[in-house]
Amino acid sequence: MAKQAxxxxxxxxxxxxxxxxxxxxxxxxxxxxxLQPKADHGEKSYKGSGKLTGKKAVITGGDSGxxxxxxxxxxxxxxxxxxxxLNEDDDAKExxxxxxxxxxxxxxxxxDISEEKHCIHxxxxxxxxxxxxxxxxxxxxYQMSHESxxxxxxxxxxxxxxxxxxxxFHLCKAAEQHLKPGSTVINTSSVNAYKPNPTLLxxxxxxxxxxxxTSGLAQLWAEKGIRVNCVAPGPVWTPLxxxxxxxxxxxEFGLQTPLKRAGQPAELAPxxxxxxxxxxxxxxxxxxxxxxxxxxx
Length: 297
Known about the structure:
Elements lengths: L55 E5 L4 H12 L3 E6 L3 H13 L4 E5 L5 H15 L4 E4 L15 H22 L8 E5 L12 H20 L6 E7 L6 H5 L2 H5 L17 H8 L10 E4 L7
Parallel strand pairs: 1-2, 1-4, 2-3, 4-5, 5-6, 6-7
Helix pairs in contact: 1-2, 1-8, 3-4, 4-5
């Protein structure tokens, strides 16, 4: 009897960078071009199948990290994308390039979503550019690690809440009149909503609020046919990490998960595609947890 050939398959765990990562530090908000190792946003791996053909999306924090991965995936699924970001122009242009390479329209809009006026401006610009909004992804966030409660200033506390949760109120309120039955809102929560990191106290608190906001708004808008859900990432390798953690913590980032590594933005994008598409037609107020195995119960 002929000996059966051994079939070799790629290990999906080992193909991603493993800790320890290089010790590194960036200034806030951090840039993708200075991140080592480079994050995987699905540039070479994500393949679309027309799930979002003709859709128009707004993504906050779309310049890098999870936002860039979602923008690439949405574009390859057929959506035009407005990319809202703070001031990381080079990163935003790189994201726009990938969107345009997919044959879709990219609109870049810098500015601070801690300001209500800018949140309204984002929605106005999306409608002006696309004629409508089908998908709103509230993804942008601010965090900073502190070992002591005394180190969190009133100004930083207020800014964290303005960026992470109050902006979602402002953006959703401004978008409501433009959202039709079948439209979707996807909020980015965090494993910190379930298992708060004590050194990220103010950030973790806002993520708990996002979970509550998502559940409540989903019920409020259910009769409108607008689906509101969220994604709760675990530790994900983005410029936010070296710009908000000390170098020693960056080197070991993700080791606390059962997979013993940080997630890559590309590993989050399919969850957002699911929630943006008709495949999630019976999902409201739901949370997709992408945590590398970290338990949330």
